[in-house]
Recover the amino acids of this structure.
């Protein structure tokens, strides 16, 4: 249990009910995956409504909350799991989960897209899915164990500590989305803004991708 991925007593109880007497590791994951897909509903939450405990109690949330509820359920029955924050190459940010499944290692699990495909969530059309993910598979169950190519991973796990050697300080983020204003706690305190923005960024590809001096000049 950790901030925003709390393993509450109701989550423990539900995880045990879902998995029951099942011993097969993959089948246990499938049961937990399907439960989240079938019982959660997509809703972009206020910052005060984020976190596995609150999202589980409400059965509502966006991609980050789908992933955190799934991770908390997995951890509650001793399955290692973590969130992955990414940037779509053809759209905005996205979060899914990874679970550790011997002997294969870390296996992806995107409960949010599986839910969207299964419920025909508004905007998730075959054309959108192909453009954003780069694949044409439209079966929700495909999203446990498989992953789409058009994404850029920018963070692994929650409660990430960022350390500035230049400023000699550090800050722990419970939630950090690439770019925009979505960070908790706030990324940068700026006077005069109606909202406190997180640090927005950019990516450099090609021959100069490791050129720090060039990056600082942009």
């Amino acid at each position: 249990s950790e901030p925003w991925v709390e393993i509450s007593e109701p989550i423990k109880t539900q995880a045990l009910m879902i998995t029951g007497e099942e011993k097969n590791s993959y089948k246990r994951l499938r049961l937990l995956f399907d439960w989240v897909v079938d019982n959660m509903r997509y809703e972009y939450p206020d910052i005060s409504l984020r976190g596995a405990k609150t999202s589980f109690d409400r059965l509502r949330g966006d991609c980050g909350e789908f992933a955190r509820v799934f991770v908390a359920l997995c951890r509650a029955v001793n399955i290692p799991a973590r969130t992955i924050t990414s940037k779509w190459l053809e759209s905005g940010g996205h979060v899914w989960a990874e679970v550790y499944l011997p002997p294969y290692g870390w296996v992806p699990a995107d409960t949010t897209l599986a839910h969207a495909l299964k419920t025909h969530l508004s905007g998730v059309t075959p054309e959108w899915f192909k453009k954003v993910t780069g694949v044409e598979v439209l079966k929700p169950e495909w999203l446990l164990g498989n992953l789409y190519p058009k994404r850029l991973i920018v963070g692994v796990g929650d409660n990430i500590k960022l350390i500035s050697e230049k400023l000699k300080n550090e800050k722990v983020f419970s939630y950090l989305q690439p770019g925009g204003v979505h960070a908790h706690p706030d990324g940068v305190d700026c006077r005069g803004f109606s909202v406190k923005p997180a640090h927005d960024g950019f990516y450099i590809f090609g021959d100069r991708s490791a050129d720090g001096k060039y990056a600082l000049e942009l």
